[in-house]
Write a structure and sequence with these properties.
four-stranded antiparallel sheet, alpha+beta, 11 helices
């Protein structure tokens, strides 16, 4: 059975690779959030068959090149690699870096001016370095991570950032932002699943709270009825009950006859019926008489 993370990546990978600018932006996100991106090597590892099928088409469209290493499955992991120096120089040059200098990765916002390219970039980042269980983006490039957090903030997603081990992690606290992000990058069905799960959880929690409240009220009613019954029995044993006014005696006998009933139900049993407030007043009088004993 496919995991939720697998379903999300499957849905994202159904977005066609069309415009050159968006293909390059998506590949850019993949590289920044993949396993290795340096002047000497590109190395991408995934367990998603859908993402693995997308990567060769994406890099062909974005950079006009093929991977030097295609996957041979290793314990469920699919590994892609590029070590050819001319291919690496082409990628680095087309992303706006200088192949002759040390590669300090940052986000080239010139490639992300259009909304469609920003969306494609985030889709690539999520496919390569995203987690669905605790929605986050994980990369070893600290400067790039800070700039991606800025990009997400500008787009209204309000991310949080933290350093974890040697990685920079962007994560989201509010489910609304997670749902909006997934919808934006091309996974609206996954976003709907999260929304539905949240609603189901809220309904279950509400039902549990209501049930707990009802049980508390039932227990409170039972405890009060038991206290009233015990008080009336003490009055009866001491001969005090017979000397009470007729209305109090009637109330006491009803309680002994119907120990499980609420005050509202007992009030209806009176002849003539009385209000719950009246019944409560009579019970307080009986409890006061019992305390005198």
């Amino acid at each position: 059975m496919q995991s939720f993370a697998g379903k999300v990546k499957n849905e994202l990978c159904r977005t066609p690779v069309q415009r050159l600018c968006c293909a390059r932006a998506e590949a850019y996100g993949v590289l920044l959030y993949g396993n290795t991106f340096s002047p000497t090597e590109v190395r991408l590892i995934t367990e998603s068959a859908d993402f693995a099928a997308r990567l060769p088409r994406l890099f062909q469209r974005a950079f006009g090149l093929k991977f030097d290493r295609l996957p041979e499955e290793e314990r469920g992991k699919l590994i892609f690699g590029i070590t050819d120096r001319s291919k690496l120089d082409r990628i680095i040059n087309q992303l706006g870096y200088d192949p002759r200098q040390n590669l300090v990765l940052h986000v080239n916002f010139g490639l992300l001016e259009d909304e469609c390219c920003r969306t494609a970039f985030l889709r690539g980042a999520f496919l390569a370095g995203g987690s669905v269980t605790d929605p986050e983006l994980d990369t070893g490039h600290a400067q790039a991570s800070r700039e991606v957090a800025t990009l997400l903030t500008e787009m209204g997603f309000l991310p949080h950032s933290v350093r974890r081990g040697g990685s920079s992690v962007i994560y989201f606290k509010q489910s609304e932002h997670i749902e909006d992000l997934l919808t934006t990058i091309g996974a609206p069905a996954a976003a709907m699943d999260i929304m539905t799960a949240k609603v189901d959880k809220e309904i279950r929690n509400g039902a549990n709270r209501a049930m707990n409240c009802d049980m508390a009220n039932v227990n409170k009613t039972i405890d009060a009825a038991l206290e009233q019954k015990n008080a009336i029995q003490r009055l009866q044993e001491n001969g005090r009950l017979e000397r009470l006014p007729e209305k109090l005696r009637q109330t006491a006998l009803l309680r002994l006859q119907y120990p499980e009933m609420s005050l509202s139900q007992l009030a209806e049993k009176c002849d003539p019926p009385v209000t719950k407030s009246c019944m409560n007043h009579r019970m307080r009088k009986l409890l006061e008489e019992a305390k005198k004993l």
